[in-house]
Amino acid sequence: MPVVRIWRRNDGAQPAGAAADGGWDFEVRPRRAVLTARIVAALIVAMFAVGGIWLRSGSTGVNFRLADQIAMVGIGVLGAGAVLMLTRPRVRVSPRGVSVRNILGDTLFGWEHIRGVSFPDRKSWARLELVDDDYVPLLAIRSNDKAHAARAMDRLRELGAKYAGPAEPKQD
Q: 15's torsion region: left (phi>0), alpha (psi -120 to 50) or beta?
């Protein structure tokens, strides 16, 4: 199945499927997961900064230096950066297809490759159903966002019907 990979470029070029003004009919990002990740990242940096400051205050028999304190804070910043990667998920819709960005990378799925979207029972996020009986998780539409997720699914299905046309009936 051909898909278009979208990579960030420094020349200011827009990703495939997007016009110069954005060109996306719909964009959704998670809400609660982003807030939680930001709080956790701030706590990680704070804990490692405090730990780095206190590193030289006790007499543990180990001789810690300023470089050790700076390294401790640096580890906290790296950990916080890893947690903030969880704020990246996004789903965008245009006439060309659906662009899905989960933790790493963007992928644009053309409407001819999309069968629909679903939100399976007891799952944490929605799925983009593909015609080859495969699916792609949509981490941007999460169950803990409740009404926000329901509105996003409704809008995604509405745009799917508009751009992909009516679903073909199943043949048994």
A: beta
The packing angle between helices 32-54 and 66-84, to 10°, is: 170
Buried/exposed code over 78-108 (b: 16+ C-beta within 10 A; e: otherwise): ebbeebbebbbbbbbbbebbbbbbbeeebbb
Least confident of 1-5, 109-113, 145-149: 1-5
The encoded tokens of residue 34 equal 């982003």
- Residues 43 and 71 occupy one common structural domain: yes
One domain for residues 134 and 109 = yes
- Among 7, 76, 25, which residue's Cα sits nearest to residue 47? 76
* Distance between CA atoms of residues 71 and 84, nearest Å: 20
Predicted confidence at residue 13, as pLDDT, reads 43
d(CA 43, CA 29): 23
Q: Phi and psi of 114, rounded to 5°?
A: -105, 130
Domain end call among 85, 101, 127: 85
- Provide mean pLDDT across the span 101-117: 92
